[in-house]
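Subject: for your reference before the review

Hello V.,

The reviewers asked for a structural picture of the protein, and I figured it would be easier to keep everything in one thread rather than splitting it across files. Below is the amino acid sequence we used in the manuscript, unchanged from the supplementary table.
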Amino acid sequence: MKAAWYSAFGPAAEVLATGELDTPEPSEGEVRVRVIASGVNPVDVKRRAGGRGAMESERVVPHFDGAGIVDDVGAGVSSLDKGDRVWLYEAQWQRTLGAASEYIVVAAHLVVPLPETASFADGACLGIPALTAHRCVFRDGPVIDQTILVTGGAGAVGHYAVQFAKLGGARVLTTVSTDDKAELARKCAADAIIRYKDENVSERVRELTDGEGVDRIIEVELGGNLTTSLEVLKPNGVIAAYASDAVKEPALPFYQLLYRNVTLRCELVFLMPDEAKRGAVEDITGWLENNELTHNFGPSFSLDEIVAAHEAVEAGAFGKVIVQISD
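And here is what came back from the structure prediction:
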C-alpha cells in the first residue's frame, strides 16, 4: 500500500516521505479501512516536528483522523461489515500507523459508521476537533438556556463547539479575528460575534449579557485569556480549556478562581472516558444524519503532496486541511 511517513522529527520537507509499505492485516477485534480522506490536525504536525514526545518507533505514519470504507474485519467484530462507510478517530494514538495511508487497521470501537448524508471529507473533519468540542461543551451537563462563550469560534474545535452548544439549546457568544471567520461563525448560528482584535471582549460580553456574564467558556487559549475569562464568567461557572499555546504555563490566580467557585477543566481528547466518547459519537451521528452540522474545509492535497499539507497547517490554514488518499 502507499503511505506517508517520517523516521525522524523535523521540518515537513526534510522528514516526510511517501512510498510503499506492507498492507496491514486486522487481528481479533480490529477492522481494516481503505482510507479515502485523511484530516490533518495541528497535533499531527506538532508530533512530526518533535513537539509532542519521543519517537514511538523507527517509522511513523501520521494522522489521527480519516474516513473511508471497511475493507476487512477481524475475528469477533460484529458491529461493522465490509463495504461500510466509516470515519475514524484516534487512529494513531499509541500506534505508529496512522491515517496517512491507503489502508489502516484500527480497533473496531474507533471506527464509526458514516451516514450517507455526509461525505468522506466531512468524516475526516471530525475526530479530534469534534470529540474535543463535545467534551468541552457537555462535560458539566446540559447547556439548554445557558450562555456559552466559545473563544476562537472559527477554529477546528471552536467551529464544532459553537454548533454543538446551539444544538444543545444554549445561547452562544464567540470571538473571532477576521471577516471570513466572522462569516463562518454566523453560518453556524452564533448569537453574537465579537471581534477580539477590535473590541474589548469583557465589555462586549457584559453588554450582551446585561452584566451577568456567561455560564461556561470553551477555551482555546487558557493563559492568554484568563484575565478576561475571570471578568466575564459567572460565579460557579466553568472554563473548559483544550489549548494554551500563547501562554503555555499560565500562572493561576487561585483566590480569584476560588472566590468565584470556578471549575477549571483541562480536556485532552485521547483521555476522555469511553462513556464520554460513546456519547459524543452518538450525538454527532444523529446530527450528521439530520444534516445539522457544517464543516469548514481548508485546502485539499494528494498523498504525494503531504509536505504541502503539513506546511499549510503550520501556516495557519483556515479550515481543516484534507489529504485525499483515494477516490
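For the response letter, the relevant points are probably these. The chain is about 30% helix and 25% strand. The longest helix spans residues 274-289.

Happy to draft the paragraph if you're swamped.

O.
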